[in-house]
Amino acid sequence: MPAKLTKRATTSTAAAARRVAVVAIAAAVLAGVSLFAAGGARAADLPLPPSTEGDFVLHDFKFASGESLPELRLHYTTFGTPQRDAAGHVTNAVMILHGTGGDGHQFFRPQFSQLLFVAGGLLDASRYYIVLPDGIGHGKSSKPSDGLRAHFPHYAYTDMVAAQYRLLTEGLKVDHLRLVLGTSMGCMHSFMWGEAHSEFVDALMPLACLPVQIAGRNRMWRKMVIDAISSDPAWQRGEYTVQPLAGLRTAADLLMIAGSAPVLWQSQFPDREAADRRVTEYVNDELRDLDANDLMYQVAASRDYDPSAQLANISAPLMWINSADDFINPPELGIAEREVKKIPRGKFLLLPVSEHTHGHGTHTWAELWQDQLRELLAESSADKKAAAKK
After folding, report:
1. Per-residue pLDDT averaged across 328-346, rounded?
2. What is the distance between the alpha carbons of residues 60 and 28, in angstroms, rounded to a whole number?
3. Are 323 and 351 in contact (CB under 8 A)?
4. Can you tell me the distance from the alpha carbon of 203 to that of 180, in angstroms, rounded to the nearest whole number?
5. Among 49, 131, 257, 304, which residue's Cβ finds the most Cβ atoms within 10 Å?
6. Total Cβ atoms within 10 A of residue 30
């Protein structure tokens, strides 16, 4: 049966040869960021453009594990309108990919959307067709908590990227992307997109990840999350009727540490009482929304990830940015500096720790990397113009 696409309109709000460069931003640039932030308050007052939400249903979807679903639902949000050239090809589509446990609506946050999507922003929705998918197992897309629980297919990153491609090409009739920008898990998917669909994408901007197998501390904290839930007697092999709160509480603690920002947190929570209060608030907030099976599947999905062997196949310009206070991707490993040399048109930029960075979550604060996005869009635009002249 063919895939099915449904849409519904909504109004978005603020709530809702080889060239390789390894770059470090100096203190002077961070000072410039502060100046932008002060002037950027005016941009934050601008309303977001209207958005559209919909569901794309793929029938008899086959997973890499050999499992299948009669119907796989992918939810998505879009801003703007696709534009087509004389041959009917889409020229202005941008796909933005979320992180583990997130969904497309995380990009509605003002530090992202009200710098990029509004009038005059680098991804102004009057110029670009912006697609924000909810990955398999996330948001309003099909996930274990819909009813199958632990009988839901064990999806992996390969499945998630395959479903994104089908959403674009079959559901939204998008045959080319101006840009793929991804954060955290979406960052990892960006590398996979560059390898699997090199001719489909003009530019890639992975934020907050490493293009190697999930190992070392990064794998360890993920296993701790899975073990905390699965060892809780209340989990009942995924057939629980009430959430296994003991396991989820430990998982929430680990998620908090994974997203920690030491310099910022030291100033925000300067004494024992403030720090303790923040832990309690964070964990209680997380426990209101977490589902044990959903979280285990989300954390485990990275098991097939390792793009390192094919990085040389990425032909599009790539701007890759991590921050030095990222617990999940610590810079002292030196992996980024090594791996970027494999990417023909890759650049890597490391944001130094400061009161402006937010640990792993720095990826969502566009004021810190919008200059690099501007550079990437200009470079890939020049590529298109040069190709058109040939």
Report:
1. 98
2. 54
3. yes
4. 6
5. 131
6. 16
Could you give the count of Cα atoms lying within 13 Å of 266 in the half-sphere of its Cβ? 9
Q: Can you read off the two tokens belonging to residue 297?
A: 């599947």
Residues 343 and 314 sit within 8 Å (Cβ to Cβ): yes
Work out the mean pLDDT of the chain and round it to a whole number.
91
- Bridge-partner residues for 349, per DSSP? 23, 321
16 vs 9, 44, 290, 311, 324, CA distance in Å?
14, 14, 19, 36, 29
At position 194, the amino acid (one-letter code) is G
E strands, the chain, in order: 4-10, 21-24, 51-62, 68-79, 93-97, 129-133, 179-183, 204-207, 318-323, 346-351
Per-residue pLDDT tens digits for 168-206: 999 999 999 999 999 999 999 999 999 999 999 999 999
Compute the chain's Rg from CA coordinates. Answer: 21
Q: Give per-residue pLDDT as tens, 40-60.
A: 334 556 888 999 999 999 999
Cβ burial, residue 357 (10 Å; 0-12/13-18/19+): buried
CATH architecture of 4-213+306-389: 3-Layer(aba) Sandwich (3.40)
Q: Which residues pair with 31 in a beta bridge?
A: none
Q: Distance between CA 266 and CA 263 in Å, rounded?
A: 5
**C-alpha closest to that of 167 among 145, 184, 189:** 189
The structural domains of the chain, with segments of one domain joined by +, span 4-213+306-389, 218-297
Q: What was the pLDDT predicted at 36?
A: 33
| Rounded CA separation 184/97 (Å) | 9
CA–CA–CA angle 105, 109, 112 (5° rounding): 105
What is the tally of helices (H) and strands (E) in the chain? 12, 10
Sign of CA dihedral 48, 49, 50, 53: negative
3.40.50.300, 3.30.230.10, 1.10.1740.110, 2.40.160.20: CATH of 218-297? 1.10.1740.110
Separation of alpha carbons 211 and 63, rounded Å:
22
State both tokens at 80: 């703007």
Pairing of strands 93-97, 51-62: unpaired
Determine the average pLDDT of the residues in 360-367.
98
Contact 189, 155 (CB under 8 A): no
